[in-house]
Amino acid sequence: MSTPELLTREWVTQLVVGEGLCPFAHPVLQNLRIDVSDSSDAEQVTMEFMALLSEVAEADPAQIPTALFVIPNQFAHFDDYWNWSLICDNLLVQMGYEGLLQLATFHPHYLFEGEDEDDMSHFTNRSPYPMLHIIREADIEAALASVAQPEKIPERNRRHMRRLGKEGLLKKMPILAQSRLFQDDPNTQES
User: Fold this and answer.
1) How many CB atoms lie within 10 A of CB 129?
2) pLDDT digit string (tens) for 100-117?
3) In whole angstroms, what is the distance from residue 182 CA to residue 128 CA?
């Protein structure tokens, strides 16, 4: 059985970098920081997130260029996660990191508004566990300057995931079959 950190690292390596979903990820992969919160208490998880946010903001970018905050024991429901991610965005601003850092959101049951629930496009932001990606804005700006037509990346990724399909995804990463990515979404289960 893989730990949350190992499965997350494999997901980044095989899918995010390996499938080219993020053309900016490969250069920072070696120094990618992955912090896992073992807490099932939302307040504790938020405190741990704030500590990591401060650590990334104050660190030398060469030492911690980017970080993933993985939450395996909290926010199983996408709506709960989404509401919490909005709180984290507000905390980032309140802590004075706006313009320096930004957050990207990933969840096993991520849903883009306006897309069919079964559309593979959601897998561009689906991850084995709920997580937040802390990204340096300067790195994003530098990376965007080096990519032709960066505004086309999201649509290219959606098309790629649709071509790949669930079978192709599982062929590339069989371990995902046992992950939350392929378990029923708790939002759709009857109480």
Assistant:
1) 25
2) 999 999 999 999 988 888
3) 9
CA distances from 177 to 100, 150, 166, 173, 183 (A): 37, 31, 10, 8, 8
Cross-strand pairs, 68:
34, 133
| Cα 59 from Cα 65, distance rounded (Å) | 8
Give residues with Cβ within 8 angstroms of 149, minimum separation 6.
Answer: none
H/E stretch holding 25 reads none
Q: Collapse the DSSP code of 135 into the 3-class scheme (helix H, G, I; strand E, B; otherwise coil) and give the result.
A: strand
DSSP letter (8 states) at residue 14: I
pTM exceeding 0.70: yes
Beta bridge partners of 33: 67
Measured CA to CA, the distance from residue 59 to residue 57 in angstroms comes to: 6
